[in-house]
Amino acid sequence: MTKVLLVDDSAVMRKIIQRNIKETGLIVDEFVEAGDGNQALDKVNANGDLDLILLDWNMPNMSGIEFVKTLRSLNLSKRIPVVMVTTEGSDAKVSEAKDSGADGYLTKPFTGDQLRDTLGDYLLVQ
Predict the structure, then answer these.
(1) Which positions carry 4-aspartylphosphate (predicted)?
(2) Which of 75, 78, 80, 119 is most buried, by CB atoms within 10 Å?
(3) Which tens digit of pLDDT belongs to each residue from 47-96?
(4) Does 124 reside within a domain?
(5) In-domain check, residue 125
């Protein structure tokens, strides 16, 4: 059973990402949602069986970068892949995200093909 945590301060964007994942044929059995990094940490602690985290950069309370740094500092029994899904598309931001522990990067707006290509390393396709 594949479980994905969507972290974005926009509920609409979380729904768009869910819909796009389903339309591309990627298999996700359950989506867990969080509106910022603090909520995401709570969700990680409550859902230890997460398979992937999709993470926005710019959020209130705790940004995506702060979240991924905090997540990587925890001694979790399983390393959860993190893919940044954000409007921040400069080379410097991509490098910062990867240096902070992100595994992948997808810039908004994205196409279904870009989504499938990026997430295909982490999710199965029907």
Answers:
(1) 56
(2) 119
(3) 878 999 999 999 999 999 999 999 999 988 889 999 999 999 999 999 99
(4) no
(5) no
